[in-house]
Task: inverse folding
């Protein structure tokens, strides 16, 4: 499966943005999907994950209550709605897919990656 992330850009603090991850080559419904992010000088960080059946898991330390992950299998796309953004959310956001069963927040268990989309939160 090939993944194409889009939707990033420059956002003011408190603003919102929606990221999209479109899949091609294979049906998205067969994968558990996740978003990770990586800020300069930091390790890649788990953001959120959505299972095949739609169950979601969020990074409770940083995004719960502000970010919402959803999937539209008919469109072969997952969406990450990000609200109440702060400068600490500035990073390159990556979508990823895995066929590993269960909930995983470990990037090493995701075998397919999009190219990343930059989100910059600044006034």
Result:
């Amino acid at each position: 499966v090939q993944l194409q992330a889009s939707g990033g850009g420059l956002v003011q603090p408190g603003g919102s943005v929606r990221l999209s991850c479109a899949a091609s080559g294979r049906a998205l419904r067969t994968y558990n999907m996740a978003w990770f992010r990586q800020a300069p000088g930091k390790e890649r960080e788990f953001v959120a994950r959505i299972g095949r059946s739609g169950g979601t898991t969020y990074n409770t330390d940083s995004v719960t209550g502000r970010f919402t992950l959803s999937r539209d299998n008919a469109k072969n796309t997952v969406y990450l709605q990000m609200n109440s953004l702060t400068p600490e959310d500035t990073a390159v956001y990556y979508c990823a897919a895995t066929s590993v069963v269960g909930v995983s927040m470990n990037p090493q268990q995701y075998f397919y990656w999009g190219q990343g989309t930059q989100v910059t939160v600044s006034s």
